[in-house]
Design a protein that fits this description.
Elements lengths: L15 H9 L6 E2 L11 H12 L12 H14 L5 E6 L1 H13 L5 E6 L4 H8 L3 E6 L8 H7 L4 E7 L11 H14 L2 E5 L22 E5 L12 E6 H12 L7 H10 L5 H18 L13 E2 L9 H10 L2 E2 L1 E2 L10 E4 L4 H16 L1
Parallel strand pairs: 1-10, 3-4, 3-5, 5-6, 6-7
Antiparallel strand pairs: 2-8, 7-8, 9-12, 11-12
Helix pairs in contact: 2-9, 4-5, 4-8, 10-12
Pfam families: Aminotran_1_2
Keywords: Aminotransferase, Pyridoxal phosphate, Transferase
Cofactor: pyridoxal 5'-phosphate
Length: about 375
């Protein structure tokens, strides 16, 4: 390692997803089921609001906490969802920025952070970046958030429980009962409860439920990246206890500074734009893939997000299966990028119906090979 490089950076690797993206750029007409972002475009109303902001000169830094109209609108929505709770909110540079600030604000060296395995790739890396210790709770084979397993993992060093529902990479949604139980466990042990809810609008069966409803000290991260296809715009938001939010803002001042101001005006307009038709379309995509692949793969039907996390066929490991798929022009992500196990792979159904049809046909062929 170069002598100038900080030792903390050696505690985690670059994301393996990026390597798949690099490979995608080299293939001719691949069947790409790897990308974790919507395949629809940002609605025109949002684009127009952002363009208007740029043309009217709203291009400088915004206040660190975000432009007042957007922050007020998000806070009004939060107060409606969680009446009687004294929550504060700020606009972050994407939900990833919210995750970084959450970890830096709450995790000390040696603190343990509990989350499910499989997990979003950033979780263990960010915990280690802060000097913390990732504690991964095995959720195979059904990927359920099991409150008993969460409580069993708590030690005197536990600082935080991190939940993600709907989840990346599995698409599985935690039940209301399990989220209520975990909310109570976090309160009982006086540990932070961080809820990553970036896929909250991609919820296909029943109604979305947040553990913040039962734990007023829960910190919630959400945003516009997935719901409105604004992944490159970097507008998220975080709400939670005032003192925690104030600390996150203090760090944002010296790091991200603020979310891009023109994009914030677009996000303000996004709050008025219904994405129900897109969510309904993604529910159909989910149903199609589950119907096609269930006879050939062991999988749990996702209740949200836009991912499937099937088990590789036979005794073939996930990474080996993905190599075989890529050799046939199908881009998917090996499960060991999201897990300590190498048994599954991730499919994104954020793709055109034709791409899904081609992908399903090839996956069925690969399962029979």
């Amino acid at each position: 390692m170069h002598p100038w490089i900080a030792e903390r950076t050696a505690s985690f690797d670059s994301s393996g997803i990026r390597r798949v993206f690099d490979l995608a750029a080299k293939l001719k007409d691949p069947i790409n089921l790897s990308i974790g972002q919507p395949d629809f475009d940002v609605p025109d109303e949002i684009k127009d609001a952002t363009i208007e902001a740029i043309r009217s000169g709203r291009n400088a830094y915004s206040p660190t906490q975000g432009i007042a109209p957007l922050r007020d609108a998000v806070l009004a929505e939060v107060n409606e969802k969680y009446p009687g709770q004294d929550r504060d909110v700020f606009i972050s540079s994407g939900t990833s920025g919210g995750l970084v600030l959450s970890m830096l604000s709450m995790v000390n060296p040696g603190d343990e952070v509990i989350f499910l395995d499989p997990y979003f790739v950033m979780y263990p890396a960010l915990v280690r970046l802060c000097g913390g210790v990732p504690v991964m709770v095995d959720s195979y084979p059904d990927f359920r958030l099991d409150p008993e397993k969460i409580e069993a993992a708590i030690t005197p060093k536990t600082k935080m429980v991190l939940v993600n529902s709907p989840a990346n990479p599995t698409g599985v949604t935690a039940t209301e009962a399990d989220l209520k139980a975990v909310a109570a466990i976090a309160a009982k042990h006086n540990v932070a409860l961080l809820s990553d809810e970036i896929y909250s609008r991609f919820f296909y069966d029943g109604d979305f439920y947040s553990p913040a409803s039962d734990n007023p000290d829960a910190i919630v991260i959400d945003g516009f990246s997935k719901s409105h296809a604004m992944t490159g715009w970097r507008v998220g938001y975080v709400h939670g206890p005032r003192e925690v939010i104030a600390t996150m803002l203090k760090i944002q001042q010296y790091s991200f500074v603020c979310s891009p101001q023109p994009a914030q005006w677009g996000a303000l307009r996004a709050m008025e734009v219904s994405m129900k038709a897109n969510v309904d379309e993604y529910r159909k995509k989910r149903d199609y893939l589950v119907e096609q692949l269930s006879p050939h793969y062991e999988l749990t039907s996702p209740g949200g997000a836009f991912y499937l996390f099937p088990k590789a066929p036979g005794n073939e490991g996930g990474a080996a299966f993905v190599e075989r798929a890529i050799s046939q022009g199908l881009l998917i992500i090996p499960g060991n990028i999201f897990s300590q196990k190498d048994s599954h792979f991730r499919i994104s159904f954020a793709a055109s119906d034709e791409t899904l049809r081609r992908g399903a046909e090839l996956l069925i062929k690969l399962a029979k090979a």
